[in-house]
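Following up on my earlier message about iron/sulfur cluster. Here are the inputs again, as you asked, copied directly from the submission form:
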Amino acid sequence: MGHNLGTARHSFGAATSAVDDLLGMMQDFYRRNAWMADGLCAQTDPELFFPESGQGTKAAEKICARCPVQAECFDFAMETGEGYGIWGGACTRTRKEILKRENAA
Ligand code: SF4
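Thanks, got it. Here's what our run produced:
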């Protein structure tokens, strides 16, 4: 009985520690990416920024051009290797071309 209680306490402690770690990572993510709350895309149709194949990107890029956190957004996409969507005014193809040029330099 005592052993089972000890095991349960150990498991509970490990779970609590994992939850603390996860909360810490989430707090860190939100602290580092607080700029996201200021993005103009949060006030518009998010689907504009994740167009289906063949849909244009101009509408999203125009919004990005007026966005106060465009630089932060672009840097985030480049650093995390975002593979889809319009970030910082750049579509996936543009970001890949920029990366290719940077890697070649
Ligand atoms: S730059 Fe564009 S995608 Fe990035 S936060 Fe601003 S509006 Fe959204």
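One observation from looking it over: Residues 30 and 36 are 9 Å apart (CA to CA). Hope that helps, and feel free to reply on this thread.
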